[in-house]
Amino acid sequence: xxxxxxxxxxxxxxxxxxxxxxxxxxxxxxxxxxxxxxxxxxxxxxxxxxxxxxxxxxxxxxxxxxxxxxxxxxxxxxxxxxxxxxxxxxxxxxxxxxxxxxxxxxxxxxxxxxxxxxxxxxxxxxxxxxxxxxxxxxxxxxxxxxxxxxxxxxxxxxxxxxxxxxxxxxxxxxxxxxxxxxxxxxxxxxxxxxxxxxxxxxxxxxxxxxxxxxxxxxxxxxxxxxxxxxxxxxxxxx
Length: 238
Hints:
Low-confidence stretches: 1-12
Shape: globular
Mean pLDDT: 89
Radius of gyration: 17 Å
Distance between the termini: 34 Å
CATH class of the largest domain: Alpha Beta
Number of domains: 2
Strand order of the largest sheet: 5-4-3-6-7
């Protein structure tokens, strides 16, 4: 048996299971997969839910289509699930996709969002699938520092007071982490951005056999928020 510990909960699964990683391409998805793999979990596929509306209740939007390139970097198959992004209906779209897959479990990057965690857990229970969330209830400040030390993370969306256009395209480094302390103190910005304050895309991780090079992108900005639209990216040897 395999035990995945975190701050408050323990998830148990067997080493022989093939898991699917729910991934938007962001740091929480990629880092949760890394943590699970450290404990011996094997993954058979990456699944990305792409909402047709930007304010999806469950799934992250900016550059989600580039999660496929991450799957290629890991030599894993990838599939998209397109949804209208309507509350609860998007879960049904995910359920239909999972029900059609030959898997034994699901791994999610939920950190503190009970809305996300509870619904994915209920969905998995309904399908008799194991559900693991290696980052669940982790200390958020410690988590972003840990993730930044392991992953190469690019900021691709900013949606909170105190986070400016100049952050788009920036890699998360020590300078940004220090800035995040200030933004958290002054404006209440969540350290991992789980409240939608900022979005990320991972260009390298330990499980990537190749790294990702963003070749071309453009900034989409409206009033006081916006995102980096990746238009071209490729894999590179490490």
